[in-house]
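Hi C.,

You asked whether I'd gotten around to modeling the 410-residue construct. I have! Everything is below, sequence then structure, no commentary in between.
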Amino acid sequence: MVKAPRGTQDIFGNSSAIWQRIEATAIKLFNEAGFQEIRTPIFESSELFSRAVGESSDIVNKEMYTFNDRSERSLTLRPEGTAGVVRAFIENSFDREGLPAKLWYRGPMFRYERPQTGRYRQFHQIGIEAIGAKAPYIDLEIIKLGVNFIQDLGLTNLTLHINSLGNSSSRENYIAALKVFLKESLEHVCEDCQRRYEQNPLRCLDCKVPEDQKIYQNAPTIIKYLDEESQKIWQETQNGLTELGIKYQIDEKLVRGLDYYTHVVFELKTKSEKLAGQNTVLAGGRYDNLVKNLGGGDYASVGWALGIERIATLIEETHQISKLYIISDSPIEALKLADKLRLETKKIAIELAYEETKFKKQLEKAIKRDYQWALFYLSEERNSGLFKLKNLRENKEYDKLDYSQVLELL
């Protein structure tokens, strides 16, 4: 039997309903905030990601799915969404329509890494980008939308972590101090960190090796190296979060895994054990130089992305599809009733039997398929105009209901 490739999964049943709920929440929230959806290609020129994400990043060094097409052009399945959105912004001259360009996206991403809970080789993200806005107030709106999104999905106990990476000048001064610290322990850290030390020492702080993390606990923090401009933005962001009533923690080791970030970066983290240590569910920050580095204008920008798989894992235990099974001895009458119910109630899935007319077997099928409700529509109910409704999950019956009462209970 041919099986799905390692690190991929089929989405169906209750999982599919959860994904639909997540996407529907995104569509409503972002439309109301004035964001427009953008859909970019699944594969792009490999150069786009090496220039945007950074040659020193683990993504470019170890995780990209890169191949040559028949014309020997190097193409890569997108490992993240921001680079493609920025490329589309530049190529299609979105800046002519006024700034900031407020865009959101959804779709599959691809990284070759060890599959584990909440992490797949084909994974899916939803993200938003505000391109062409320098004031820190846009950062606050972007962060607030992320918090609202999580809350709208009914998730709690997530904590916002923030840090500042400063501007280029601040970062250069910090990296010089960081290299002095790292040099003393260089022979004791992993090979990846030894490479990162030469290419981009900031990446060392993002290392997941436990022994290395212990060493980096004593590393200098970038906050102490922020210049006046960076310090002002950092303070304004914290003041704004407080004004908006958003609780946060300063995480001085938070650097994010992509090279294009500047100034404020953030992550929403959960303490749930269901993700087996993959506790970041939403992450982003400001990237003031990326548009210019990819050949566009000098436009400050900010955005975030979340992993749908991780969000779905957090809500799958509390999410149950509301489903109704019509039990009847007349398939055509059941179909007529189902059609009427589908028009008048949009919040429930409705199914009926076309071949099986024995109501006991229909009831067994409804229970087996985890339907919440069974609506009995036999000759007795059709003649009286009154219904019997049973909550199969709670084993509770409601007799002699008129049609309006049925709608109220569903």
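If it helps when you're writing up: Residues 13-167+227-315 form a domain with the BirA Bifunctional Protein; domain 2 fold (CATH 3.30.930.10).

Thanks,
B.
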